[in-house]
Design brief:
Elements: E1 4-7, E2 12-15, E3 25-26, E4 30-34, E5 41-42, E6 50-55, H1 60-71, E7 77-80, H2 86-97, E8 101-105, E9 114-118, E10 126-128, H3 133-144, E11 147-153, H4 164-172, E12 176-178, E13 187-192, E14 198-202, H5 209-217, E15 225-229, H6 237-249, E16 254-258, E17 261-264, E18 274-275, H7 283-293, E19 295-300, H8 313-319, E20 323-327, E21 330-334, E22 349-351, H9 359-366, E23 373-376, H10 388-398, E24 402-405, E25 409-413, E26 420-422, H11 428-438, E27 444-446, H12 459-466, E28 474-478
Parallel strand pairs: 6-19, 7-18, 10-11, 14-15, 22-23, 26-27
Antiparallel strand pairs: 1-2, 2-3, 4-28, 5-27, 7-9, 8-9, 11-13, 12-13, 15-17, 16-17, 19-21, 20-21, 23-25, 24-25
C-alpha cells in the first residue's frame, strides 16, 4: 500500500499506490493524516507495564455496510461516527461514482465528522476497490443496479483475491459481466438499471462477504432473492449476522428458513440515522499489548451487545492468561506481569473459523506462549489482503520463531525471538502484529506501517499514546465532497 499525502497544489488528499500507473487515488472525505516516516518503522519497545485508556474509531465492517444501505435507501441518512480510512474512503468514492451524494456534517466524536448520504439515480462509473474486500464484494452488486457499464479494479494484489463467486452470482442473476474468463479483477459490470433477482446458489467458502454483498442489495432486486450457500463451510458467520442486523434496523425482513439459506423479498430500505460502534477487531493489538508488556489497557465505548467478531477477544484473551473486566462501556484487559515481566502467554488450541480476522493478533501473542499452540478454521485467510498464513509463518520465523502452516490453520511453536524485519505485505493486520511483537523484542522494524491507514490511520499515534509517549504530528484534512 502507498502512503497518504497532501498536495497543496490541488488541495486534494491522495493515495499513491506503488506499481500502478494511474494517478493518485483521491480520498474524498475527512481522513486522519499521519506523517508516517519513510522506510522501515522501528517498533517501540515497552519500558514497563502499561496503564493506558484509549478510544478507537468506528468499525470498518459496519461503516461500509451502512454506506451501501444508505446509498440504496428510500431517502437521506446520517451516519454518525463513521470510520474515516482508506477502505471507507474507497467505498465512498465508488458509491459517489455511481451517483450517490455525500456531505459532511458536524459530529461529536474525536475522529472526524458525520456523513449525510443522499441516494441518487444510479449510473455506471469507475470503481477502485483498493484492497478492500467489502468494496470489491459489495459494490459490483450495487453497480448491477445502475444504468450503464461499471469498471471494477483495485490494487495489484487485489487482482489475486477470490472474485469468481461475485462474477458468477451476477451472471446467475442475469447481469452481463465482462472479465475475459479470469474470474478476477479487472472486470466490467454492464448494468441495465435493475436486477431480476430470484433464486441463486453460490459457494461462499472463500469469504462470507459474497453473501453479505448480495443480501445488502437484494431488497432492490425485482424479484428479491432466495440465496443458498452450497459449500461445505462458511467462514466468518458473525459478519453475515452483522449484515442481517443492519438490514433489519432499516426495516428489511430477512428470512432464514434453514442454515445457509436466506430469503429477502423486494422491499424498501428505510432511511435511518445510525451510529457506528468502535472497531473491536482493531482493539486486538492494543488489548493484546497488556499480555506482552504487562499492566492494563482500557478501551472505551465497548458496546454491551454487538455482532462484531472483535467481541470474541473478551473470551479469548482470558484463555491466554489475561484478566478481563468491564465497567460501563469500558473494557479493561490486565496482563499481569506480562511477557516483559517474565510471565509467558498460555498456550491454547483455538478454532477461529468465526473470527479469522483476529488470527494475526492471536498468532503473534502465541509466539510468546509457554508451549505449542494451534489456530484452526482459518484457511480462508490465504485469500485476504495477503496470504496471512504464509505471512505470519514468514514474519515470526524471521524473528527466530517457528510457525508451521496447516491446511486450515497454523501451529505456533514458541522459540526465543530476536530483532529483524517484519513485512506488512500491504496488510494492515500484519503491520499491527509487527508492532505487537516489537513491544518486547528489540529492533523489530515494520516495512510499511502506513498500510494501517486501510482501517486505522491513527494507529501510530494511538500506539504511542498507549506507551505514554508523544505521538508524531497529525492533522485532519476536511475535503469538499
Amino acid at each position: 500500500m502507498g502512503v497518504l499525502g497532501y498536495s497543496g497544489r490541488d488541495e486534494e488528499l491522495h493515495l499513491q499506490i506503488p506499481g500502478k500507473e494511474e494517478p493518485p487515488v483521491p480520498l474524498y472525505g475527512v481522513v486522519h493524516v499521519q506523517d508516517a516516516p519513510a522506510g522501515p518503522w522501528a517498533a517501540p519497545v515497552a519500558e514497563g507495564p502499561l496503564s493506558a485508556r484509549l478510544t478507537l474509531p468506528g468499525s470498518k465492517s459496519l461503516t461500509n455496510r451502512e454506506l451501501v444501505l444508505a446509498a440504496l435507501a428510500d431517502g437521506p441518512s446520517t451516519i454518525r461516527r463513521p470510520l474515516h480510512s482508506r477502505d471507507s474512503a474507497l467505498m465512498i468514492q465508488g458509491l459517489r461514482a455511481l451517483g450517490v451524494g455525500f456531505d459532511e456534517v458536524p459530529g461529536d466524536g474525536d475522529f472526524g465528522p458525520d456523513l449525510r448520504v443522499t441516494p441518487g439515480e444510479l449510473l455506471g462509473g469507475t470503481i477502485d476497490t483498493g484492497l478492500a474486500g467489502t468494496v470489491m464484494r459489495f459494490l459490483p452488486i450495487v453497480a448491477a443496479l445502475a444504468l450503464g457499464p461499471s469498471n471494477v479494479d483495485g490494487d495489484p494484489y487485489a487482482r489475486k483475491r477470490p472474485m469468481r463467486t461475485t462474477v458468477d452470482a451476477l451472471r446467475g442473476l442475469g447481469v452481463e459481466v465482462e472479465d475475459d474468463g479470469r474470474g478476477t479483477m479487472p472486470f466490467t459490470v454492464h448494468g441495465t438499471g435493475g436486477v431480476r433477482g430470484g433464486e441463486l446458489a453460490i459457494d461462499a467458502s472463500a469469504s462470507s462477504q459474497f453473501v453479505s454483498g448480495l443480501l445488502l442489495a437484494a431488497p432492490r432486486f425485482d424479484e428479491g432473492l432466495t440465496l443458498r450457500h452450497t459449500g461445505e463451510r462458511l467462514p466468518s458467520l458473525p459478519h453475515i449476522r452483522m449484515t442481517i442486523e443492519c438490514l433489519r434496523a432499516r426495516g428489511v425482513t430477512v428470512e432464514e428458513p434453514e442454515p445457509g439459506v436466506w430469503v429477502v423479498a423486494p422491499q424498501p430500505i428505510r432511511a435511518v440515522d445510525v451510529t457506528i460502534e468502535p472497531d473491536l477487531s482493531n482493539a486486538g493489538p492494543f488489548l493484546g499489548a497488556a499480555l506482552v508488556a504487562g499492566g492494563t489497557v482500557t478501551i472505551g465505548g465497548w458496546p454491551e451487545s454487538t455482532t462484531q467478531v472483535g467481541d470474541d477477544l473478551l473470551r479469548i484473551l482470558p484463555m491466554l492468561g489475561a484478566t478481563v473486566s468491564r465497567e460501563g462501556d469500558a473494557v479493561t484487559v490486565d496482563g499481569g506481569a506480562g511477557v516483559l515481566g517474565g510471565s509467558p502467554v498460555h498456550a491454547v488450541d483455538l478454532d477461529l473459523s468465526t473470527g479469522g480476522e483476529l488470527a494475526p493478533t492471536i498468532a503473534t501473542l502465541l509466539a510468546f506462549a509457554d508451549g505449542p499452540s494451534a489456530i484452526t478454521g482459518i484457511g480462508h485467510l490465504r485469500g485476504h489482503e495477503t496470504d496471512r498464513l504464509a505471512a505470519l509463518a514468514s514474519d515470526i520465523g524471521r524473528l527466530g520463531g517457528e510457525v508451521v502452516e496447516l491446511d486450515e490453520g497454523l501451529e505456533i511453536r514458541p522459540r526465543p525471538l530476536h530483532g529483524g524485519a517484519w513485512e506488512a505485505y500491504a496488510d494492515h493486520r500484519m503491520a499491527t502484529s509487527g508492532a505487537l511483537a516489537g513491544l518486547v523484542v528489540p529492533d523489530v522494524t515494520v516495512d510499511d506501517i502506513a498500510t494501517t491507514a486501510k482501517t486505522l490511520p491513527e494507529f501510530p499515534e494511538l500506539w504511542a499514546r498507549m506507551l505514554g509517549r508523544e505521538p508524531a504530528a497529525t492533522r485532519w484534512e476536511t475535503l469538499a465532497l
